């Protein structure tokens, strides 16, 4: 059922796409549905759009299904980004990065006039933090960066449980050559403050708190789609 809900959310968001748009394409299982549906619409309608993918995986999928791609170097201002989320609250604040593409996702979303999130109902939460918060860090000075993050969380009264994301026996490496710490916080009562504090730590490249970027969301449930904000 969850996969069908993701597809329904993606299909609803596709209605926001107009000819001539410059689009940002998200990463993850829900965003994959959007990319495939966009490819079908391009083939059926000869829809003219150009898209910036947020990961190498999305780039490969877009090329496979006939979605024209470009880069932010060629198109630095986008009309719309459509992406999934690991969590979204009623104020359209997000946790993203479960797939490891948070840095490129945030850059692309920030370059867009609008961002629409597509998700099934399990991702809609009252308080962010049940899903581990990804923090992308440079490999150099890893132990020092970890120590600084733990110190920050302790000072904020948050859980100091964090794990270096692994892929097999080795650290997971992002498309940008960095590592990811996953912070198991349980609840984040002041996400704006935490976002600002994490960004100040040397060695932290980016974090998965997306605040002030999402303009609307499609939340799919068995009985229909809920729209948050403005599509």
From TrEMBL:
Which example biological process does GO assign this protein?
pentose-phosphate shunt, non-oxidative branch
Q: Which domain of life is it from?
A: Bacteria
The EC class name is isomerase
- Gene3D superfamilies given in the database record: 3.30.70.260, 3.40.50.1360
Q: Does the keyword GTP-binding apply?
A: no
Known pathway: Carbohydrate degradation; pentose phosphate pathway; D-ribose 5-phosphate from D-ribulose 5-phosphate (non-oxidative stage): step 1/1
What reaction does this enzyme carry out catalytically?
aldehydo-D-ribose 5-phosphate = D-ribulose 5-phosphate
UniProt entry keywords in alphabetical sequence: Isomerase
Signal peptide range: none
Subunit structure as annotated in this protein's UniProt entry: Homodimer.
> Which HAMAP family has this protein been placed in?
Rib_5P_isom_A (MF_00170)
Q: What does this protein do?
A: Catalyzes the reversible conversion of ribose-5-phosphate to ribulose 5-phosphate.
Under which name does UniProt file this protein?
Ribose-5-phosphate isomerase A
What gene name is listed for this protein?
Answer: rpiA
